Amino acid sequence: MPQHILIGRRRVIVSKILCVARNYADHAKEMGSPVPTQPIFFLKPTTALLPNGGTILLPPQSRKVEVETELGVILGSGGSDVPGDEAMALVAGYAVFFDITARDLQAKAREDGSPWTAAKGFDTFAPMSEPVPSAGISDPHALAIRLRVNGTVRQDSNTGRMIFRIPQLIEAASQIMTIEAGDVIATGTPAGVCPIVPGDRLEADIARVGTLRCTVAARNR
Ligand code: MG
Q1: Residue 195 belongs to what H/E stretch?
Q2: Residue 179 C-alpha to ligand 1 middle, in angstroms?
Q3: Are 131 and 116 in contact (CB under 8 A)?
Q4: Domain ranges (residues) in the chain
Q5: 19 Cα–ligand 1 center, Å
Q6: CA nearest neighbour of 80 among 3, 150, 183
Q7: Per-residue confidence band for 180, with pLDDT thresholds at 50, 70 and 90
Q8: CA of 189: how far to CAs of 51, 59, 166, 221, in Å?
């Protein structure tokens, strides 16, 4: 089923969700992983999208699901081999995005050298707030980003700490695959990722971008 989102008055279909791994040094450190020397991408299916206010469903296959708060970049136009200095012109909007991760499945995949598809791809694993048009955000690399779980602050950082900035991400991604209007780029998470359990209330803010709120429940087969 196509996933439509509105950016201002413009309706776009999300074609793909391109996520960036370890794009904040303090998160790479907490994962015990090296800081990458070039952007590392993985994909989430668009069926994982969840509207603001939705309920994240914890799958029975996992015993440890974690939340990562990220700045989502929504493209208004696409291309391939986009030079970094032209990349920002493609950005139509921004949103608050949760990269929900089955951490135990990811750890097992790492061990086995397998893809992260299951760890990252369950239904409801891509909650996203209503996008705001990019015209209202003069510098997306200077935004406070914060997560509260049940009222307690768990992530508190700034998008200025990204290792690879949005133009570099767009340039690198578009050298791999054609990027399109409606694509969402999840730009990575700062430190403080934490497990979530049924009944939790998640609330994430990115300055000037908005607030994303979700609840958590177990998914029954
Ligand atoms: Mg992430």
Answers
A1: strand 194-195
A2: 19
A3: no
A4: 4-218
A5: 6
A6: 183
A7: very high
A8: 19, 22, 14, 30
> Residue 198's pLDDT is what?
98
- For residue 155, pLDDT over 90 is answered with yes
Could you give the CA distance from residue 55 to residue 33 in angstroms, rounded to a whole number? 30
* Cα–Cα dist 210/132, whole Å: 8
**pLDDT tens per residue across span 3-60:** 889 998 899 999 999 999 999 999 989 988 888 999 999 999 999 999 999 999 999 9
Task: Give the residue-averaged pLDDT of 56-67.
Answer: 98
Q: What is the DSSP letter of 33?
A: -
Give 193 Cα–ligand 1 centroid separation in angstroms.
9
Distance of CA 81 from the midpoint of ligand 1 (Å)? 24
Q: Which CATH architecture has domain 4-218?
A: Alpha-Beta Complex (3.90)
- What separation in Å is there between the alpha carbon of 20 and the centre of ligand 1? 6
174: three-class secondary structure by DSSP:
helix
Q: Measure the CA–CA gap between 161 and 25, rounded to whole angstroms.
A: 8
Determine the residue type at 1: M
Q: Are strands 144-149 and 152-158 parallel, antiparallel or unpaired?
A: antiparallel
Which residue is listed with tokens 């800081």? 35
Q: For residue range 89-110, what is the model confidence (pLDDT) as tens digits?
A: 999 999 999 999 999 999 999 9
> What's the number of CA atoms in the CB half-sphere (13 Å) around residue 13?
3
